[in-house]
Amino acid sequence: MKKRTSASTWLLCLCGLLAMGSLLGGCGAERTIHRLRAANFQQERTEGVTTSVQARALYLQVSPGGGLTAESIDAANRMLTSQGPIRRQVLTIVALSPAGEKLAPRLAKTLTDAGANPPRRGAYEVEAGAGSAPAEDLTRQQQGWDIELISEAVVVNAPDCTVAQPDLWTVSPYYAIGTLGCANEANIAMMASDPRDLIRPRALAPTEGKIATSAVERYFNDETKELIDIDFGEN
């Protein structure tokens, strides 16, 4: 067998070094491209769907007829709708005036009839006393209002899935739109019947074991049964 000359050996070593240099240079170029892309182009949205406990409060006024004013009814409907299904909200009614004290039971019944859990009754107590500065500040804040309605609920906060950069729509549609999975994630979150399902598994209800195993028992122990043959042509 003919031995390789020293020239051919050096040639092979040179080719290997060149190949390794090209490989390392390619990796460096790729990293440079990634850095340029991150510095000059729209990045993916980092915000996602979050689930949290949200408390909202609303002051309401009683009309001369004894019910709530139209403005108060509209505001209450908007707040309760923004908190999700009313049956999953914890509601508290705080009477702030004699008129509100009279209307509070009727409001609680109306909310219960609409599907809410029976609202709780609340009251404000200032530790410093009725004549203290905190008590006077609270009185000024509540002056002119008759009822405070408080809603606490677990709500879903979905990200804003509008076009990320509207000014680039005709120039670079891909980067202008932004993350395409945002809308899908937000839609799934908004369709959840219970927002808590997004943060923890739901326990299965108890099952009847006998019913679950009856099909297997019939397969092994019972006889084959003929399917019912119905002739719809007969009278």
UniProtKB/TrEMBL annotation:
Pfam families attached to this UniProt entry: Pilus_CpaD (PF09476)
Top-level taxon of the source organism: Bacteria
Positions of the UniProt region annotated as Disordered: 112-137
Cited InterPro entries: Pilus_biogenesis_CpaD-related, Pilus_CpaD
NCBIfam families membership: pilus_cpaD
Record's protein name: Pilus assembly protein CpaD
UniProt source species: Pseudodesulfovibrio alkaliphilus
